Amino acid sequence: MTHLSRRRLLQGIAGASASSLILPAWAAKPKKKIGVALLGLGGYSRDLLAPGLQLTEYCELRGIVTGSPEKIPVWQKKYGIADKNVYSYETLPEIADNPDIDVVYVVTPTFLHKKFSLMAAEAGKHVWCEKPMAMTVGECQAIIDACNKNKVKLSLGYRLQHEPNTQTVIQFAETKPYGAIKKVKAEAGYAGRGGPADDWRMDRSKGGGALYDMGVYPINATRYSTGLEPLAITARFENDLPKIFTKADSTAIFDLEFPGGVIANCATSVTRNMNHLRVDCEKGWYELQPMQSYNGVKGQTSDGKKLDKTIAHQQAKQMDDDALAILNDTEVMAPGSDGLADIRVVEAALKSVETGKQVKI
Ligand code: NDP
After folding, report:
1. Could you give the angle at the alpha carbon of 218 between the alpha carbons of 261 and 292, nearest 5°?
2. Ligand 1 pocket check for 109: Cβ under 6 Å
3. Nearest CA to ligand 1 atom 22
4. How far is the CA of 113 from the centre of ligand 1 (A)?
5. Residue 200: CB within 6 Å of ligand 1?
6. Which of 100, 120, 166, 213 has the highest count of CB atoms within 10 angstroms of its CB?
7. CA 66 to CA 176: how far, in whole Å?
8. CA 56–ligand 1 middle distance (angstroms)
9. β-bridge pairing 284-288 and 299-301
10. With a 6 A CB cut-off, is 163 part of the ligand 1 pocket?
């Protein structure tokens, strides 16, 4: 059994949905709510995470950490955040003395994930870190080490692993209802990115471009849908807008080889729409389409089964699952090792693009 699948079997409570949670007799339903501080009040915090935190059962939005003073009164008014729970990036270490805050959720551009995750861990707070985890394997390891050293939990913002139809596909990797997995297709991308030039998403050194920003979706999907770790990659970029994408890739195409001859054909883009996960097996197939949207992830199997469970809010479910892992002291669903494994593939992809050759992972 692989590391990934063994972990999934062990997840038990933490892996169940907050709404459908079946707790064993010895596990009391937590009464306490985890206090969350969002760090970086950009689009994702504003549009998905803060609204999601209004729907959660086991955690709530209690604090903010921001470099934009003008956002403070807006957020305080909207979410009733107390003055004592407002921090700048400079005052962040003071959060160590604030018992209202249990978790710092790092939602900045990727090149800052390591810096702020380390500061949060050093302050003794649990760390939730957005995807992609960091810029390099070394940075990912530094985050893992800091969380271990400070005895705090670390969860990645891989919301899809909390989504019920995706969880069915993850279970199929374990139970193999259609026989041995032969081939995976994983594609995630959206059309529309093209500036402004100073946007961090247009600069690979800050975590921009297709491979970093969107590539971890197909990479993570190949790993969770097979339960295997890739052995080798061949990757190339296709630049749809070369005059605009001067510092980052707009589309990346890559093939992964897994143990047992399993192949994954992948693509990711910030200039092309694509949203499909398909797994071909010895005796059938299954797919999710869309595979990574904020809602409406759904799919089907070769024998006509619909993968069409619904949940109210993916991010709310993710944060409740992660809060329960803290309250019950169980394993988190998307740990640092999961984020690191994806960045290892990103690093190998960059090497393959540079050399034009297959690269061992
Ligand atoms: P935005 O650019 O909209 O916001 C980023 C925020 O980070 C800024 O508003 C700012 O907040 C803060 N920040 C701090 N330092 C900087 C800096 N030097 N440059 C720019 N911003 C800075 O990005 P998103 O909210 O879309 O993305 C943030 C993170 O969330 C990324 O890692 C991204 O990959 C991830 N994400 C995950 C998604 C998912 O589905 N899991 C979806 C979308 C994003 P402030 O003004 O408060 O300081």
Report:
1. 135
2. yes
3. 108
4. 10
5. yes
6. 120
7. 46
8. 22
9. antiparallel
10. no
Count Cα atoms within 13 angstroms, Cβ side, for 92.
26
Tell me if 41 CB under 6 Å of ligand 1.
yes
Residue 2: DSSP 8-state:
-
**Domains of the chain as residue ranges with CATH:** 3-159 (3.40.50.720), 164-310+335-360 (3.30.360.10)
Q: Is 244 exposed, middle or buried (0-12, 13-18, 19+ CB in 10 A)?
A: middle
Distance 105 CA to ligand 1 centre (A): 11
Radius of gyration of the chain (CA): 20
With H, G, I as helix, E, B as strand and everything else as coil, classify residue 238. Answer: coil
**Ligand 1 close to Cβ of residue 66 (< 6 A):** yes
Q: Is the pTM of this model over 0.85?
A: yes
Amino acid at 194: G
Pseudo-torsion of CA 328, 329, 332, 337, nearest 10°? 180
Distance in Å, CA 228 to ligand 1 centroid: 30
Residue 297: C-alpha distances to residues 52, 70, 131, 167, 251 (Å): 17, 36, 19, 11, 22
Residue 164: asked if its preceding bond is cis (omega within 30°), the reply is no
**pLDDT one digit per residue (tens) for the chain, 361 residues:** 444 544 554 444 333 444 445 555 555 566 789 999 999 999 999 999 999 999 999 999 999 999 999 999 999 999 999 999 999 999 999 999 999 999 999 999 999 999 999 999 999 999 999 999 999 999 999 999 999 999 999 999 999 999 999 999 999 999 999 999 999 999 999 998 888 989 999 999 999 999 999 999 999 999 999 999 999 999 999 998 999 999 999 999 999 999 999 999 999 999 999 999 999 999 999 999 999 999 999 999 999 999 999 999 999 999 999 999 999 999 999 999 999 999 999 999 999 999 999 999 9
Concatenated DSSP letters of 34-52 = EEEEEE--SHHIIIIIHHH
Tokens 């080798």 -> residue:
232
For residue 199 and ligand 1, the question of a CB distance below 6 A is answered with no
